[in-house]
């Protein structure tokens, strides 16, 4: 989950690792990557609060902390499933799958639209209409999300991480990293290891 920010404020990334069996696969999306734009409102607030409870309970480690975390995670997934009762257009799902599978390669809208079977303008419009972000923003967000994981869990340099996730221009990687996280890779890595549980 990435929450909105004002100019000068940092992005907040929150993710949860879990076994699908512990949640029930019925609540999980069919596609490997599910993008949903959450407008400010009650659903966004409830999801944000559920994530806060997960963080709190996982740190407190009370007797039932694990069950409390799973309950909050189920609430998040149910809210998203209920909100997305209208399925994404299969062509948007296919575009997201293609982006995810070819993240490390240079991707042009023209080539992607040909793969999907739509004109570049139609794909761009449909993708943004259904996901709330442009195709390029979705791709860069995937790459930066992967970069944050590599920075947090490996000792690879920032330039190696940039290349690993598909950025062949380090300055562009730095600009995108700051855009999506509000900080630079070295500060992110230092903060992640300071906050690590």
UniProtKB/TrEMBL annotation:
GO terms for molecular function: DNA-binding transcription factor activity; sequence-specific DNA binding. This is Helix-turn-helix domain-containing protein. InterPro entries: Homeodomain-like_sf, HTH-like, HTH_AraC. It comes from Cohnella rhizosphaerae. Residues 93-191 form the HTH araC/xylS-type domain. It comes from the Bacteria. The keyword Transport does not apply. Pfam families: HTH_18. The keyword Transcription applies. Keywords: DNA-binding, Transcription, Transcription regulation. Coiled coil: none annotated.
């Amino acid at each position: 989950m990435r929450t909105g920010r004002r100019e000068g404020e940092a992005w907040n990334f929150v993710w949860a690792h879990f076994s699908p069996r512990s949640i029930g696969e019925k609540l999980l999306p069919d596609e490997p990557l599910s993008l949903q734009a959450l407008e400010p409102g009650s659903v966004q607030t409830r999801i944000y609060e559920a994530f806060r409870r997960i963080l709190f309970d996982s740190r407190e480690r009370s007797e039932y902390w694990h069950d409390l975390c799973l309950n909050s995670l189920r609430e998040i997934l149910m809210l998203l499933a209920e909100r997305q009762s209208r399925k994404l257009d299969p062509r948007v799902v296919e575009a997201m799958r293609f982006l995810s599978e070819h993240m490390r390669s240079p991707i042009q809208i023209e080539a992607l639209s040909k793969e999907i079977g739509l004109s570049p303008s139609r794909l761009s419009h449909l993708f943004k209409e259904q996901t709330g972000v442009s195709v390029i923003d979705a791709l860069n967000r995937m790459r930066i999300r992967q970069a944050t994981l590599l920075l947090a869990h490996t000792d690879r340099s920032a330039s190696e991480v940039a290349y690993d996730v598909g950025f062949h221009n380090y300055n562009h990687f730095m600009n995108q990293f700051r855009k999506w996280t509000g900080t630079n890779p070295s500060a992110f890595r230092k903060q992640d290891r300071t906050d690590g549980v």
